[in-house]
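User: Teach me something about this protein's shape.
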Amino acid sequence: MSAWEPVIGLEMHVELDTRTKMFCGCAVTKGDDPNSHTCPVCLAHPGALPVVNQRAIEYAARIALALHCTVQPRNIFHRKNYFYPDLPKAYQISQYDEPLATEGWFDYWVDGETLRCRINRVHMEEDAAKLIHAGGDAGRIAGSDYSMVDFNRGGTPLVEIVTEPDIPSPEAARELLQQLRNLVVELGVSECNMEEGQIRWDANVSVRPEGSTGLGTRTELKNMNSFRYLQQALDAEIPRQIEVLEAGGTIALETLHFDPGTGTTTPLRSKEEAHDYRYFPEPDLVPLVIDPVWVEGLRATQPELPAARVQRFTGQYGLSRADAVVLGSSASMAGFYEEVVAAGAAAKPAANWTMGEYLAHLNAAGLEAGHGHVTAERLAKLVKLVEGGTVSTSSGKEVFALMIEERAEPEAVVEKHGLGQISDAPELETAVARVIAGNPAQVEQYRGGKQQVLGFLVGQVMKATGGRANPQLVNELLRAALDG
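Assistant: First, the predicted structure itself:
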């Protein structure tokens, strides 16, 4: 049996927060009455002429620069022809062979390893309207009784980011998309709200014999807006292709639907190629000529992006790359961590508590960093209590939980619940003597040369003192008693 490897490429579609549509002045909003933001341009009335949204060009260029692409000095819009009820012109204004930007790259992290994915292109286009299927089995076009069209979304500015087929696994595809979404959000050009459809992606996937360089026939997983479902879909499609090939079959070039309920992919239609869309230049729009000086002005005003922040965290705070990736990959988490350090907590302990108890709390409560009762100042106070020896690490975790439960300050929790660290030698000597007397087998093992047993005995003292004992002092007292 041959060994196979997947080859994955992604197309990410991002709605830009430009407030108005790509080629007209209609507002871009969410939740308003259907068809309340339309005009002759976005409804394709005869004689209505499009005008390019300059803010959309700026936002798209910022994305391209963040992906190390070359912004082309001249690019043009094309008509991408296809008939569908959510497209009133029967074509979409997009870009084809002269896009906004080309040939970039994006570095992302998977299990502590940095991978690079080449970016083929970044181009602009308008979004289609929204189809609403109703009656019958409304979740499926074929099963619904009728469909309605809301043209409020039609004409919304979109940026499409197209990668090269450089992604080696479903897990890597998921990580790349999550980190690419963070990048776009930090640029301030889109909220990338997945529930509202502000970001969607397609995945092109094929398999090939391990070690070969050719590309197999690809299938496309279309219009997904869940990282988890994307990975699940790829995990289902890759084995399916391998099974077909090993049985002597061929892979059809087609678009697939993934059903999360069954965990399987099924064909939707044959995959379109460029010639199927009959591209030709949009005659109502002149070519875009972009001033290189304007591009450099954008580059100079870009915010600090995750890759640069990760590098800064390793140098400024002495963090490992793995820790810097966790703390620096999103602006909210990075900002919170730096506030904890600014409030007086040492850099490494602050990182440990932010990545540990605090991040677990955010995930459990469904909060963004910086929200909730545990402020950066309060976490810094707790870190300093632990580092100063007032509270042990294990008791510190209890203090953290009680801070949230009682919405209290860490010092008040320590005083109220008696969670201060025990550093009184006579008191600990009593606990040590009891543990030695109660564990004769382990004591004998230690005195016979099995030094690692000491950790067990330290743990028993910590347990006996409710985790409040000073572990360093316990270690010293145990060694003195056992060796003496």
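Now, about its shape. The chain has a mean pLDDT of 90. The chain has three domains: 4-298, 306-417, 425-483. If you'd like, I can walk through any region in more detail.
User: That's plenty for now, thanks!
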